[in-house]
Amino acid sequence: IVVNTDPGKCGAVVNYDQPSATDNCGSGALPTYLPGYTYKGTFNGHTYFLSNNLARPEDAHSAAIAAGGHLATISSYAENQFVSAMSSGYIWIGATDRSSEGNWGWISNEPYSYTNWAPGEPNNAGAGEDWAVINWGSSRWNDWYYTASALYSIEFDGGTLPTTLVSGLA
User: Fold this and answer.
1) Do the Cβ atoms of 76 and 89 come closer than 8 Å?
2) How far apart are CA 84 and CA 109, in angstroms?
3) Letter string b/e over residues 111-127, b meaning 16 or more CB atoms within 10 A of that residue's CB
4) What mean pLDDT do residues 41-47 have?
5) Buried (b) or exposed (e) across 152-164, using 16+ Cβ within 10 A?
6) Strand partners, 156
7) What is the rounded CA–CA span in Å between residue 52 and residue 95?
8) pLDDT by residue (tens digit) across 96-141?
9) Quick check: 39 and 51 in contact, CB under 8 A?
C-alpha cells in the first residue's frame, strides 16, 4: 500500500480491509505425513493430525498456521466424536474468545454453529480461559487457561500442504 501524505505532513491515516492469502497447492492428494505430528485420518474431505507434544494454545495456534492448517474446528456431533477420539487426554481445538471475552468463534472464522460445552462452561473461571479444550469429561469442551499445555489437533481443509493460510481472530 502506497499513500501520499499532504504537503508538510509526516504521516497519514490508512484504512484497508484485513488481508487474506491462499496458495495454489490445494488441489493435490490429502497429506498423510507431517513431521512432529501423528496422522489421524480424514473427515468430510479434511485431514487431521495430532501433535506429538504438549503446547500452550497460542503456541499450538502458531504451529498450526506455520504448518499450513489451523487448529481443528468442529461443525457437527460426528466431527466432535472424530476429534475427541484422537486421544483420551485434553486436545486444544480452534474455539477462542481471546479477542472479545465471552464471544466465542472459530480461529478460522468459519461459522460457529455447533458446540459441545461441558455443563457450566465456558465460564472463564479465574480469568484467562480463552481457548477451548476437548475431552473435558468425555467429548465435552471446556475453556481453559492460555498458560496450560495440552496436545492439539491441526486440520487441513484439503489438498497438499500447505492449504489456506489463516490468521484467525485478531
Assistant:
1) no
2) 21
3) eeeeebbeeebbeeeee
4) 93
5) bbbbbbbbebbbb
6) 47
7) 21
8) 999 999 999 999 999 999 999 999 999 998 778 999 999 998 999 9
9) no
